[in-house]
Amino acid sequence: MKLAIALSLLTVFTLACSPQTPSGSPTRNGSAVTEPGSASPTPVPMQNIYTNAQFGFYFEYPNGYTLDTRNEMQPSTEPDTLQSSVYLWTTEDYELIRSGALEGQGTEYPPNISISVHDNSDSRSLSDWIDPTGALVADKSVVTTASVAGQEAIAYPSSGLYELDNFLLLTPDGRHLIHLRVEYFDREAPSREAFEQVVASFRFD
Q: What pTM value is reported for the model?
């Protein structure tokens, strides 16, 4: 009798201490989310987050890409305004670059995604910053307005060694310009989808 009572109390204690999931809320299970009433988890791509503490912004990027921060701290010198730049390469391309396999072959580096910060202490407007990298805007009429991280931005395609999509926006204090850019050969390139995620997730602290 005493044993039965002890077992019952143990069972009640175990249930009371088990974590409960609120009704109607998805539960995260490793890299998957189980929706209420679903028979199996729905896969969710794992995300990576880059944070730039100096200029107060962060963004997400998908698996399959490697962040290159070798030029993250790059103080500008006149007349260069560039203060910081980071690059996203496909992991496969990044391994080739790091191994030196592309050196001395007369080949250009593969296309990438870049996020660069420029000094704007002279309070230039966004339109004055179109094309800070020297790529050509074929038609100024394709420049459109957008919103990134709650800030007014402009977006435009350009052409250089590769085709490019560009977003320009100012930091909230207006002291710096952020240039988000993706290079590609083909408009169906997966990197354009990864770039959309970077732009959509871009935030200021």
A: 0.74
